[in-house]
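Exercise 7.
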Amino acid sequence: MINLPIIPILILIPLIGLFFVLLSMENDDFAAQSKKSALWTTITNFLLSLYLPLNFDKEIPHFQFVNSFEWFNNENLKFTLGVDGISMPFVILSTFLICICIFFIYPQKKKNMKMYLASFLLLESFLVGTFGAMDLFSFYIFFESILIPMYLIIGFWGGERRIYSAYKFFLYTLLGSVFMLIAVIFLYQEFGTSSIPKLLDFTLPFYIQQWLWLAFFSSFAIKIPMWPFHTWLPDAHVEAPTEGSVILAGILLKLGGYGFIRFNLSILPDASIFFTPFIFFLSVIAIVYTSVIALVQEDMKKLIAYSSVAHMGFVTIGIFSANIQGLHGAIIQMISHGIISSALFFSIGSIYNRYKTKQISFFGGLNTIMPKFSILFLIFVLGSIGFPGTSGFVGEYLTLLSVFGKNTTIAFIASTGVILAASYMLLLYKNVFLGPVNENIRKKFGDVNYIELIVYIILISLIFVIGVKPNYILDYTTSSIERIIKLYPISIL
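Solution. The predicted structure, written as tokens, is:
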């Protein structure tokens, strides 16, 4: 096997592509050239990222493909990159969705196209760095750096209230991260190392674990987001461009779940046990409350945004169940939601590009105008409500199974979220696609084009592949998850 420094390569390639994109000029010819540069960059990066699963040893629970560089000539402060079974699927998800986004952008015309493309390439580099970070400081730097391109995407290319939404997104996430920085500095000063794997070998007093847990929680709860820290998400989704919403829902929300697994659960197990009832309480409120709110939404993007908060509630329940079913379910749910929510936002983008509105009341009978698109959208709806055979079913089933052994009441309340999800998603489909044709949409813009069709077929294939064969992911995650579970007392397993 060739020993490639694969994670540094995956970080650097988007930055190289960024250079060529920024060199292009602003006329139509050069805009087309910048699109090609960005597209080939992301395709190359995605194909290279497949090196990870193809050469990953599933039996090893520790980090693999490790590369380390010293910071400030300090042996204990290193910039270290690598992946284990938990982080590797998210690296693949990041490179894949960025590639799909650039492909979806390709035929479009946007103001200042080269800066728009550059923002996504920069975002890809930071995302890979975040999931590939093996030390506290590099994780924090990449984690915070993601705010910059995402702020630009919402603030420059968003809707009418884009400035308000961009500021709200930025300030919410930045505030939470301040507390995480304090926790990172404390851990380094306490143990003299920034290495995440080494921190697993240390034990902290319970009262210190509690404070550190809350510090990490403040950042990751906002990012995922959990109720009541979720209010920035609907605003950001409504105002963000289609591709921005895809990345926001498809990847950025997963940073919170990943952070919970990597830091709260792994490094602070005693505090995680103590705060589990608190997490369960917030999660079931998120599942039920945001699902009810989704039922009355008039904006399609806002509805999907609230549904994302509800779906992430299943993720947090699964994570803090602290058993193999729960963690498997949480990871599958995150990957599944990343694909399905991306598909839904792409679909809404297709509708918006034709009719310039996201208001549900504007539509009706769209299946008559766009019959192929209506079938594709129905598949995404079924995936979102967790229909058996889709990836959404696997994640929700495993998380509910995991929490049932911990608290049957929580499991019962959470299960109502499945019914509510079916209600608001099927109601959305009925109001937009079924019934008599609304006069507003009499003008025919044509069914799905070939770019949209390729994107949707790829996403549908993944929904069914993961739904039928979740082991394609779980085989990679099992050993790393078992390592985390071993940190917990036998009594809670």
